[in-house]
């Protein structure tokens, strides 16, 4: 894994992690839904999410860390000069999910290989292609013939009108609307060339 970088307020990041020794993280369809519950609890207060994909043994997220003011504790009993630690919130997410899986499946030991890896998203082209890369991942790994059939990513949530915590309107506006969003995904079959130097083996 590359050198860990700090998660700074106002910046965009590709976050990813996988099961220890590539162990399966999601053994049953309802496991995927459960993972998103603590994600909303621990991560939504400190980061905006633009795209995600949950695969059997690894996960991807594209997020923007909220500005400093939003990261200050709300409780008057806490030191409001100290920002909420996004890294600690990510650890809480992984620990909460691991405890549930260990209990449900009578397993012990480490579930995740490491804490979340992260790469800063430093350009508009990277942001655009990364959304596609994240959604295309199930097809990229041979799990399915058409990425759009994978039910555990944000691809359809962004197209839906149902309630969501995703930054749906931002993503759709970024691509120029629903039709352009769909067209970009359909026309760029596995073309990661513009961001390939920024996607290494550690990115799964």
UniProtKB/TrEMBL annotation:
Protein's name according to its UniProt entry: Transposase
Organism lineage string: Bacteria, Pseudomonadati, Bacteroidota, Cytophagia, Cytophagales
Limits of the Transposase IS200-like domain: 8-137
InterPro entries per the UniProt record, alphabetical: Transposase_17, Transposase_17_sf
Gene3D superfamilies from the UniProt entry: Transposase IS200-like (3.30.70.1290)
SMART domains: Y1_Tnp (SM01321)
SUPFAM superfamilies assigned: Transposase IS200-like (SSF143422)
């Amino acid at each position: 894994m590359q050198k860990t970088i700090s998660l700074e307020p106002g910046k965009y990041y590709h976050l990813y992690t996988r099961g220890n020794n590539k162990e399966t993280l999601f053994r049953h369809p309802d496991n995927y839904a459960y993972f998103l519950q603590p994600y909303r609890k621990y991560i939504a207060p400190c980061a905006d999410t633009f795209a995600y994909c949950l695969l059997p043994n690894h996960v991807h997220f594209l997020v923007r860390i909220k500005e400093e003011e939003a990261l200050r504790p709300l409780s008057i009993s806490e030191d409001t000069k100290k920002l909420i630690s996004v890294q600690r919130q990510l650890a809480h997410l992984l620990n909460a999910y691991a405890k549930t899986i260990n209990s449900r499946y009578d397993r012990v030991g480490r579930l995740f290989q490491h804490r979340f890896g992260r790469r800063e998203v430093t350009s508009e082209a990277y942001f655009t292609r990364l959304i596609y890369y994240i959604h295309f991942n199930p097809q990229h790994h041979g799990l399915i013939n058409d990425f759009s059939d994978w039910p555990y990513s944000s691809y359809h949530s962004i197209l839906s009108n149902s309630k969501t915590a995703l930054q749906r309107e931002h993503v759709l506006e970024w691509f120029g609307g629903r039709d352009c969003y769909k067209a970009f995904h359909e026309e760029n079959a596995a073309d990661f060339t513009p961001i390939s130097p920024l996607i290494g083996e550690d990115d799964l």
